[in-house]
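User: I'm putting together notes for a lab meeting next week and I want to include a structural view of one of the chains we've been expressing. I don't have a solved structure, so I'd like a prediction I can at least talk through. The sequence is below, exactly as it appears in our construct file.
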Amino acid sequence: MSSETEWRTVRRVRTHEQVLTQIQEKILDGRLRVGDRLPSERDLVEALGVSRNSVREALRVLESMGIVDAHVGSGRDAGSTVAGRSTDALGNLLRLHMALSQFRLGDLVDVRIELERLAVTRAAAEAGTDDLAQLHALTRAMAEPGMDHERFHELDAEFHIRLARASRNALAADLMQALRDAVKSEMIAAFGRVRDWDATVATLTSEHRAILAAVEAGQGEKAAALVTRHIRGFYESAGTGED
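Assistant: Thanks for the context. Below is the predicted structure for the 243-residue chain, given as structure tokens.
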């Protein structure tokens, strides 16, 4: 556990922002890493000279951001742990930012395409046996009869995210997950506008298989071209494309 002295680096202000600043700075400079335990609630109160309510508010904020797993209270087992699950919070933040900034859907599609082109190109060189097995399992699941819109969206999203993870670029995978989370409702709504759902499922699944085949064969440029056509084609067919 860090000594009390290490937590006295900012002016004493009785607000939760001081606690946030302390923890964020220690993460940014590498003194706190995923899995590390924070001082207990009582220790933070004493070290920072803030109220218990301020500590609890700061921990709630950090927990909502996926930065810590908070355990309020006092005693030997109290305190919080630095987490590594900020992707959900990033998706929520991106969804709110998109709503407030009113980005054009076309802008989002362009960004997604560039991310996916990077992912499949790298995956063609980096994907391992387990990656490919998981991707094949997802395409088989997509072909099951009676697939509803939400279930297909889950499988579709997982397929693209796993492709990104197979690229061994963790940031690309997290950004992909955040983008997919941010537009989940819009994607399900787009599926609902499709006139011939069964035919669309068959087409999208076939396209997924073609992308996967190119990745498996190590053909990065072909996979990038296929994923570009796949994404643009869906948005156009669902009537969500923009100039």
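A couple of points you could mention at the meeting. The longest strand covers residues 68-69. The chain has a mean pLDDT of 83.

User: Perfect, that's what I needed.
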